Amino acid sequence: MHKLFIIIGAISGAISVILGAFGAHALQEALTATGRLDTYETAVKYQMYHSLALILLGILFAQFDHKLLTYSGYSFLAGIVIFSGSLYLLCATGVTKLGAITPIGGLFLIAAWVLMAIGIGKSI
């Protein structure tokens, strides 16, 4: 399982860099015109932060092997997809109702950090 989270984190990190560069160059004018540049940057930042968290989690599996760490990894993944994904879609489509599901992704991200902490605590 640890390899899977490291691989997914690395791929997600690469996608984050690609989308960040795309936003900074090809989309900057459109995002600025629609007032969505900050929203797009938030999506990219959160995707990168939590991609790194997935990599860290995979590394932590070597020291702390607990089922809660697996749940944490899946929560990070769901959080990235729902949080950042909904913000990317909001920026691309202008459909503001997509912003209503963003907090669900945030809850997954919070849960992932809490599950990581508890899983490590129970492994000690």
From TrEMBL:
It is found in: Membrane. The chain crosses the membrane at residues 47-64, 76-95, 101-121. Keywords: Membrane, Transmembrane, Transmembrane helix. It is a multi-pass membrane protein. InterPro entries: DUF423. It comes from the Bacteria. PANTHER family: TRANSMEMBRANE PROTEIN 256 (PTHR43461:SF1). Belongs to the UPF0382 family. This is Membrane protein. The lineage of its organism: Bacteria, Pseudomonadati, Bacteroidota, Cytophagia, Cytophagales.
